Amino acid sequence: MEISSVTTRLTRFTPLVWVMLIGNFFVRASYYMVWPFLAVILYENYGLSATEVGLLLTVSATVAVFLGFYTGNLADRFGRTKMLYIAVSIGAISFSMLAVAESLWLFATSVFLACLPRTLWDAPSKALLTEELADVKDRELALHLLYFLVNVGAALGPLYGLWAGLNGEQFSFIYTGISYIGLLFALLYFRPKLSEAQLATAQSAAKSVPKFSKWLGILRKDKVFLIVLVATTLVYLVYAQCDSSLVQYLTRAQVPELAWLISSLIIANSSVIIICQFPLLHLMKNWRIEHRLYAGGIVLVISQLMMAINDVQNVWGWIAAMMVLSLSEAIMFTNINVYIDRLAPDNLKASYFGAAGLCSLGYAVAPVIGGLILDLHSGMMLFIVMTLVSITALGFYRIAQVKPSVAAEAS
């Protein structure tokens, strides 16, 4: 993608599109500001056991995933901007509660609420973003930029969380709460301003959106989308092993300078994605979306094979494998969003993006599956299994390509 072409496309981004992009960065950064450090805070300040901490975090994340599935449909029915208002309002309340909570029950409630803005914001913001941009290539650039900002937010969030939450200044969470209020005002100021004719059209389109039970019926018939969901869940399961099981494997193997290696893997991951994402977009600009996913899947398979055969003490081998994995991530993650956008009917964008959030269950079950394989077999077996899972995901993407889309016909 040429620089002049990118500049031209960026000039077509409306103020609301920029609010969606910056808002996604902020919401993701605030999520990662809290999530990595909650276990430490819950242990040091409230004396919870490892099991109790794990239960609280797992339940909060899982409920948030399923809630996102439901609220995506609500956003299509009652208004996407209204759901965004709710998301940022909950963000302001939850982070303010985190700042002043003194009892365990209040802090635990705040933790649960702090998980919700990311889920409530994700689907309607993507739907609104794509709705604002009529040109397909403009949408694609916006979704790539969205993923780029999400990664920057995920990288910067823990740094702010370290300052705000772990240096004895729990009250500093109040600044995030105030920032959410600022985001709410930005949404209100840049909200879509529709003429009477446009408003009537929007209201008519909203009335055509089925209720949740009927939406489930449509979803069951859309075989293409369901196959894509299965494939994407498997892909997320593979990626998540490097967040949990790989660290367990390296820890059990007593790899020297483990802290340095883990930090290096995190830096390698974020650096490759940030540096390579837009060059890859330029390289693949004329590729079909399915072919991009195949390419990313093949690179993912290679990364898992590298991890399977790498000597556990070979730190540079792990870093190289992580860089290959990150290259796959830079290809696949944005293109999955682009694929879902193209599969979804215009009046069900948020519903489809909300349903796609169920793929995060791949992340949720990854520590359990990875832990079982490590306990029963070995690290090599873990990555051999993940290689097979990656190949299976590629197979599902291929099956999805040759099937007709029922949802497109239903719309």
UniProtKB/TrEMBL annotation:
InterPro entries linked: MFS, MFS_dom, MFS_trans_sf, MFS_Transporters
GO cellular component, one term: plasma membrane
Primary location recorded for the protein, binned into one broad class: membrane
SUPFAM superfamilies, A to Z: MFS general substrate transporter
Source organism per UniProt: Pseudoalteromonas peptidolytica F12-50-A1
Listed PANTHER family: MULTIDRUG RESISTANCE PROTEIN MDTH, RESISTANCE PROTEIN MDTM, PUTATIVE-RELATED-RELATED
CDD domains reported for this sequence: MFS_MdtH_MDR_like
Major facilitator superfamily (MFS) profile domain ranges (all copies): 16-405
Pfam families: MFS_1
Location(s) in or outside the cell: Cell membrane
Keywords linked to the UniProt accession: Cell membrane, Membrane, Transmembrane, Transmembrane helix, Transport
Name of the featured protein: Major facilitator superfamily (MFS) profile domain-containing protein
Transmembrane segments: 12-33, 53-71, 83-99, 105-121, 141-160, 172-190, 224-240, 260-281, 293-309, 315-340, 352-374, 380-397
Annotated membrane topology: Multi-pass membrane protein
Gene Ontology terms, MF aspect: transmembrane transporter activity
